[in-house]
Amino acid sequence: MSTQLTPRNVRPWAAAGLLVPGLMLLAARPASADRLTQHFKVDAHPVVTIHNPNGTVTVRAWTKSEVMVVANRATNQVEVDAEQTENRIDILTRQVSGTANPDELRTDYEISVPEDAELEIHDDAGGVNVSNVLGDMNVETIAAGVDLEDSAGYLTVKTVGGAFQCVRCAGRLEVSSISGSFKLIDMRSYNVRAQTSTGNILFTGSFLPNANYRLKNYSGVIEVRFMPGDSFDLSATSLKGKVNNEAKLTPSSKHHLMPRFGNALFGTFNSGRAKVELSSFDGTINILKRD
Predict the structure, then answer these.
(1) What is the rounded CA–CA span in Å between residue 63 and residue 70?
(2) pLDDT truncated to tens, each residue of the chain (291 aa)?
(3) CA 243 to chain CA centroid, nearest Å
(4) 73 DSSP β-pair partners
(5) What is the pTM of this model?
(6) H or E segment at 162?
(7) Residue 52 CA to its chain's centroid (Å)
(8) Cβ contacts of residue 289 below 8 Å, gap of 6+?
């Protein structure tokens, strides 16, 4: 079922004084309304895709077996298309005028999904906010920042210049950017790969047994904060930058290739149950105690 969340679809039904189930919420609003709403019934593990050139995409989990899409358009220079194919919902912001400026193309979304939903989000400018969604997720932006909270599954995030923050995320995380900075707070992930060219990376959280954490940048600060009860095997290298360490390490039993130039630090904290690899070209690496 395909529904266009724009006044163009509302007027014929409203003029005739008729309503159909898929258009009830749309027809209840005037043709000039900027806030457009639609509901889709779904089964377990639905897939939801969002393509938006400009605006904030906010996704929240709820207990209902349906996807609710609320679109707030800045102008009528864009149309919002929503299509359901079996258990997949595709949402697209589409430009209808070739002369519109970026501000006129802005559409903000508030989307409610079941917690086991899988998400694919493309948002060029604005922001992406997702909370309590436990399914796999792929997010790609240009300048939009990305904020995830209490998310799990296989999380893949790519930005050009957008910042990224992940709070209490679990599962597996892969994040990359050109100039964005990352904040990974109270992490519960068993596999983290984070790479940015000119941004900073902050990591705090649990170092899980047999887990892997790889943080890399070209310049900027990489900071890892640890607790006394953590257990990890550490490799930290910066070719032209500094490595500052507050962890009392013991020599590692694992073989590490010592760099010919630069600063490097290798060792085991407690029993070394997790693997932590930190690397930078000319940035600073800090391994600090958590307060």
Answers:
(1) 17
(2) 555 554 433 322 233 333 333 333 333 333 334 889 999 999 999 999 999 999 999 999 999 999 999 999 998 888 999 999 999 999 999 988 777 787 888 999 999 999 999 999 999 999 999 999 999 999 999 999 999 999 999 999 999 999 999 999 999 999 999 999 999 999 999 999 999 999 999 999 989 999 999 999 999 999 999 999 999 999 999 999 999 999 999 987 665 555 555 689 999 999 999 999 999 999 999 999 997
(3) 29
(4) 107
(5) 0.84
(6) none
(7) 15
(8) 225, 226, 227, 228, 246, 247
Distance CA 211, CA 188 (A): 10
Phi, psi of 92 (to 5 degrees): -135, 130
Close Cβ partners of 255 (under 8 Å, ≥ 6 residues apart): none
Phi, then psi, of 87 in degrees rounded to 5: -105, 25
| Residue 259, both tokens | 């760099």
Element (DSSP H or E) covering residue 76 = none
